[in-house]
UniProtKB/TrEMBL annotation:
Organism: Salinarimonas ramus
Coiled coil found in the keyword field: no
NCBIfam families in the cross-refs: PRK08139.1
Name under which the protein is recorded: Enoyl-CoA hydratase domain-containing protein 3, mitochondrial
The keyword Glycoprotein appears for this protein: no
Phylogenetic placement of the source organism: Bacteria, Pseudomonadati, Pseudomonadota, Alphaproteobacteria, Hyphomicrobiales
The gene coding this protein: fadB
Length: 270
């Protein structure tokens, strides 16, 4: 029996409308913790979406009062009974979760987190990994591993690439919760909206992006993350090549012509 079939109810729901795929974490009784099944199903779904030309943007939300409480500590603790006290399992778990996070970054379509309630540890990592994030004003963010003797090292990777070093270190070292307003000020989320409206706002955000050329969006998203890992001169050389190649695309030609002719563009996504 695999991790997904081990649960009676799939821990993730998907619905599609207007070019937007909405994925909803659906283990509210476990505060949507990232158990083995959730990680596997989320990664599998992202892989399917990557090849789905009908999907132009993705929204990631959650059922219940918590967005995601991080890894499933009960599931992890049960592996202490393994002959190696769980070390092989823990290493494999972190590799699988890291691969799923990287699948979000590699996805051609933008991913927008819609956060209500708490997003802690790997849940906070999930928000930081998404390309954009909308938070209800009741949302709280934390990397509280230090309180239980477990530094949030993998969430640190996403946080340190989204926040200033001082802000990331403050969250990681103190483990204290950060309000939605403070998360916005720090750059962890793009917008703060009235509680209960994060999903609606994120979907409207997504529909706006879905109206753009998918080729252009995929090109830009890929280039954004690639250049961010480069030195300044290398980044400019790379971005110049990407932009010149983008200019040769049919959608760039159409978009420029439409602007000059003062008409809406007709995207062909090529």
């Amino acid at each position: 029996m695999n991790a997904i079939s081990a649960l009676d109810v799939p821990p993730l729901r998907r619905s599609d409308a207007d070019g937007v795929a909405t994925l909803v974490l659906d283990r509210p009784s476990a505060r949507n913790a990232l158990c083995d099944a959730t990680i596997a199903l989320l990664h599998e779904t992202l892989d399917a979406i990557a090849a789905d030309r009908a999907v132009r943007c993705v929204v990631l939300a959650a059922e219940g009062p918590a967005f995601c409480a991080g890894h499933d500590l009960k599931e992890m603790t049960a592996r202490r009974a393994d002959p190696d006290r769980g070390q092989a399992y823990f290493e494999d778990l972190m590799r699988r979760c890291s691969a799923m996070m990287q699948a979000i970054v590699a996805l051609p379509q933008p991913v927008i987190a819609a956060v209500e309630g708490v997003a802690t540890a790997a849940g906070c990592q999930l928000v930081a990994t998404c390309d954009l994030a909308v938070a209800g004003e009741n949302a709280r963010f934390a990397t509280p591993g230090v309180h239980i003797g477990l530094f949030c090292s993998t969430p640190m990777v996403a946080l340190s690439r989204n926040l200033s070093r001082k802000h990331a270190m403050e969250m990681l070292l103190t483990g204290e919760p950060t309000s939605a307003a403070e998360a916005h000020r720090m750059g962890l989320v793009n917008r703060v909206v009235p509680a209960g409206t994060a999903l609606e706002t994120a979907q409207a955000f997504a529909r706006s992006i879905a109206g753009r050329s998918t080729l252009t969006i995929a090109t830009g998203k890929r280039a954004f993350y690639a250049q961010a890992e480069m030195g300044l001169a290398e980044a400019y050389d790379y971005a110049a090549r990407v932009m010149a190649q983008n200019m040769m695309a049919r959608d760039a030609e159409e978009g420029i012509n439409a602007f000059v002719e003062k008409r809406p563009p007709l995207w062909e996504d090529r």
